[in-house]
Amino acid sequence: MQDDFFTGLEQHLGESVDYLREIKRCSEAAFEKFTQALPLAAHREVISKEAGFIAHFLATAKEDCGTCAQIAVNLARKDGVADDFIMAVAAGKADALNDEEKLVYAFVQATVDNKPEQNDLRDEVTARLGASALVDLGLAMASARIFPTVKRAMGYAVSCGPVVVGEARAPVAA
User: Fold this and answer.
1) Which CATH architecture has domain 2-170?
2) Domain boundaries defined on the chain
3) Has residue 47 got a pLDDT over 60?
């Protein structure tokens, strides 16, 4: 039964979850607590799936532009985010996005890089998308960083590389 959970998760994510197996092997309590972050990572209440992908992907790529970035792509594709949109975000081509998406991209990038312009961009996001959008974006960014950080600490992070989007490859502009 336990292996079914891991195998099913690997099929859903499209990547190995050996690090989760190791967490469970080392500490059942840690595993139970860590898996409680899974629903948080999937939270999106008011922002579009595209805005959610921007936040999740850019925060993930900041921490790990390897398998975690690929998982973000795989999940976005399952959620119906268009491949050309994913390619543009992964390659850092914000100019290919619409105005709202460019704003989200700029805000997320400034936030994950802790740049001063995040304050003005936050005000603009609030004005255009509402305060609730900040909650969705903040949770997407924060939760996206949990998994690669734990994987890196445990030695499961892999080197950066292009993400696969359908039949194409996109270099990650982290």
Assistant:
1) Up-down Bundle (1.20)
2) 2-170
3) yes
